[in-house]
Amino acid sequence: MIKKQTKQRSLNACLIAAIVHVCIAILLTFFYYTQLSYNIDDVIGVEIFDVNKPDINRRSLKRPMPKKAMTAKRTEALADYRPQHVKFTAASNLIDETVRPSDKVLMHSATEKVSDTSTNLPDVTTQSQQLIKREDSIAKSVQSPYEITSGKGTESLRQRVKGDGKSGFNRLESTGTADIGDIGQGFAEGVGGKGDESGDSDKSNPFAEALERIADHIIGTREGDKVNVVFVLDTSASMRDNIQQVAKNLYSMTDAFDRVNIEYYLGMSEFSVRREGQEIKTRNLMPDVGVLRRRMKEVQLSGDENALDALVDTLDFMEFHADANKHLILVTDEPASTSFKGKDSKTNMQTKVIQKSKFDKIRVNVLGFPEPFQQKLAEVTGGVWEVIPGHAYNPTSLPSNRAGNAKLLKAFRDIATDIRQSAHKSMFSLSLQFELPITDNKISLQNIQKEIVKNGIELNSDLSLSENLKVLEKKESDLWALSDPSSQKICVLQRVENTLHVYAGSFPQNCNFGQDSIAYVQQRSERWVLTEQQNNQIYTFRKDNDKLIVYIGGQPGTASNSYAKPNVDIVVMLDYSRSMSGKSQAVMLGLSTLIGRLSIFPLKYRIGLIRFAEAKDAIKTIDGVDIKQMPLNEVRIENLLKDPFGGDEHLIDAIVEGLPQVKFSPFAKRYLLILTDEPTTGKSPPEQAIQLCKSLGITAYVIGHPNPNDFQVTLTQETLGNFFTMPRHLDKPYPNQ
Questions:
Q1: ∠ CA(572), CA(573), CA(577), 5° rounding?
Q2: Contact (Cβ atoms closer than 8 angstroms) between residue 253 and residue 590
Q3: DSSP state of 304
Q4: Which residues lie across from 368 on neighbouring strands?
Q5: d(C-alpha 482, C-alpha 491), whole Å
Q6: Which residues fall within 8 angstroms of residue 110, CB to CB, at 6 or more apart?
Q7: Strands 277-286 and 263-274, how do they pair?
Q8: pLDDT below 70 — which residues of the chain?
Q9: pLDDT of residue 513
Q10: Are the CB atoms for 510 and 699 separated by under 8 Å?
Q11: Among 107, 117, 239, 635, which has the highest number of CB atoms less than 10 A from its own CB?
């Protein structure tokens, strides 16, 4: 039995093995024949058709796409049927010829070769027409390419700029002169004079004359008709006005190039030393004067300068045209220095600048400081040296960061704190002197005069005016105020039922009351408002027990507590002469600090600006007083301070001329902040300026020249303000204005 089972198991195993082997064999056979079909190298398609009837049941095979030749070739067979006829009708001998192609094989006959004359078009194009010599004459303006004059606007040569990516030159389609600038205004007749707001160059401007002399030198020393001119600009804080003037008078240089048809490209590099170290920015060369002019006006100024480092970096990084005459123009107002520290580092850098300039064949022109190195640099490199107008080294410049102006910024913070405290304070108070009974509802003027004298109240003004006395006949009515400006005494009468309450006292110098005024009730027997028409000022009287407390400002017709959040008007009077040019950014930091403090105080404030200067030098931004009415924000003030400083200054004249034009609010307490770094000058008497401030109710703060006997200190004392010393002030008026 056991043997039988064993035999059966063996048969089953063999059967299973056979099945598996058969399956494997089938799979191998399938893969073999499959791969065999893939390995067939050639496949032949056979089509059987009737020879006698070839057009029936014949399948047309699709022809492959022809290969496109990389270069078209001209063949003689093709050219035989396309002869070219050229008629020379303009020649003296008329001919009719057939131009046949050459028998020689041309390898690249289809390659177009454009001649230079089809792309390199001249700047000036003309419209040709037949001219009879005896009848027509050529206009003087086109007799010579060198007779082109300036002042033509879009007709100027440089307005035919290289175009929009197409070949040739294209005429600039302009809708205005915002980006182009007014070409040639520096040479047009009738242009110049002070107060030129257009920003055009002035032929009488020293900057325009210096740039034109540099241009004449470049023209006279050129070896071709293409020049590269790169301005190396010192962008330290003291260079604001100089850079603006270079930008303003840039056309005086380019117009000189245009008159002799020079192809020029302009570039610039900016250098200054900031907290992070030396920084230099280079601008690519371009033929557009307007773009470079705009970039100059928008440069960011701060820090100090290292001109030697900037020259080396400019020579390394600026990419000049290989076929152009190369020129640098260094613009700075201080001696050239370097950031490297060492015994001979400055001498080594000077030598390196000269050697590198000569090796690269770059002429260095200088509009700068009168030091021996700058003059030598221009001489040995083939450039020209010009002294920068107003070249005096300015030791009064202040840093452009907050850390370097801690003392100045503290003065602005102290002024903001003092404004907050004084704006909340009352101006003065009046005490109850006596009471006068009223009989039969009649008020006798004679009894009032008698009682005033009896109680020792001295008023030089007479009390004959009885019109205002009638207000006292009304019960719980308005106040009647009598004042004596000569003795600064004031007497105020109030009716309470059948009794007159008489208050008296002295008022400060910066309060001006009319001799006979009415204060109208605002809150019943609690607050009155008096409007003084002479100086457009409002005073508020508030009753506190047996006193009348007087404030400046108020909101008539409302019951709000205006003296809890008072209104203040602040006029910043800024000396805009050249000596203050190096302090512009420090002053802006101070004004930002002042505005920031006032914004967090419980005040309603407005700020105005008066810039004052006398244009004596190249800078004619301000000549007299320039008044910007309130309210101004911080951004607007910062933009106004970007204009170049220049000229002299007369503080007293600016106060006398400027303050009466300021539109003060009658509800606000008034403050004046004067910023200057020189002793006071002016044609008007100092007493007139002080009296004007008092009459307007102004409290004056001064950051200026610390002379105890000077007008600036006296003004703050007379108007109950404060004086602060301007850092790096001048002991005498600036001599280079």
A1: 135
A2: no
A3: B
A4: 387
A5: 5
A6: 71, 72, 73, 74
A7: antiparallel
A8: 1, 35-204, 237-238, 273-279, 302-304, 390-395, 460-471, 473-476, 523-525, 554-564, 617-619, 734-737
A9: 81
A10: yes
A11: 239
